[in-house]
Design a protein that fits this description.
This protein is 72% helix and 3% strand. The protein has one domain: Up-down Bundle (Rhopdopsin 7-helix transmembrane proteins), CATH 1.20.1070. It is globular and about 65 Å long. With 266 residues, the chain is mainly alpha-helical. The two termini are 22 Å apart. The chain contains 8 helices and 3 strands. The chain has a 3-stranded mixed beta sheet.
Length: 266
């Protein structure tokens, strides 16, 4: 590092490079989506808590997924909405790092919760007679606690490796929130270790869980095809199709973002 380098205390989130009118339109759309996210997931949580018939492992994991989705959105969207209607798009360094940590923690936790949900569906369809024994409340609690703990610890590893780096500019983040890879671009030191850890963590938290999900649903598909009743097949497919769509969208986008190599800028 040279002596005339200055350390970052405040960052600028570039967000969406569009006109003021388009920014107001985006503000309205994202505000609506954010409200739907909170209301929809809040309604799911309320129904699960109030209806004793929904006190089952499947809805137990669904309630955790709802909490993760609301927390994930609340970590990123309010600041983005504020930046859309404000000319000052700054964020202090400490809140930026906290936003990065929470973003990674919630993302990792969601990966593991989705795996737990796929395992629950596998047991329900492939081993229905032993479902209550295998998916006991003790097992469900252990799976949920493990998901939150592992997600938070992995996020902490990323943040610790991030904070060891000197940040001296530029002061602009080419994103609407403090996403890990975007923040790494501000470091004025070698970030190869960070990228190696990100790739290794992606293999552990994305590829590994995705393989487990695919194995679970392959066995589920085989079990469904053995069902003689057409109504039974339809019911089995309906309980899994929506979850499989979420898994595909979530894991697919995450793998493209963190594991597909990007061309180096010249």
């Amino acid at each position: 590092m040279t002596e005339n380098q200055t350390f970052i205390t405040e960052l600028i989130l570039l967000g969406f490079p569009v006109s003021s009118k388009v920014q107001l339109l985006l503000f309205g759309l994202f505000s609506l989506f954010y409200a739907f996210t909170l209301v929809g997931n809040g309604a799911i949580l309320g129904l699960i808590c109030l209806d004793p018939r929904l006190h089952t492992p499947m809805y137990f994991f669904l309630s955790h997924l709802a909490v993760v989705d609301m927390s994930y959105a609340s970590n990123n969207v309010p600041k983005m909405l504020g930046n859309l209607v404000s000319k000052k798009r700054t964020i202090s360094f400490a809140p930026c790092i906290m936003q990065t940590f929470l973003y990674m923690a919630f993302a990792h936790t969601e990966c593991l919760i989705l795996v737990a949900m796929s395992y629950d569906r596998y047991v329900a369809i492939c081993h229905p007679l032993h479902y209550t024994v295998i998916m006991s409340w003790r097992v469900c609690t252990i799976l949920a606690v493990t998901s939150w703990t592992c997600g938070s610890l992995l996020a902490l590893v990323h943040v610790v490796l991030l904070l060891r780096l000197p940040f001296c500019g530029p002061h602009h983040i080419n994103h609407f929130f403090c996403e890990l890879l975007s923040v790494l671009k501000l470091a004025c030191a070698d970030t190869r270790l960070n990228h190696v850890v990100i790739f290794a963590a992606s293999v552990f938290i994305l590829v590994g869980p995705l393989c487990l999900v695919l194995v679970s649903y392959t066995r589920i598909l085989v079990a469904i095809l053995r069902i003689q009743s057409g109504e039974g097949r339809r019911k089995a497919f309906s309980t899994c199709s929506s979850h499989l769509c979420v898994v595909g969208l979530f894991f697919g986008s995450a793998i493209v973002m963190y594991m597909v190599p990007r061309p180096k800028r010249i």
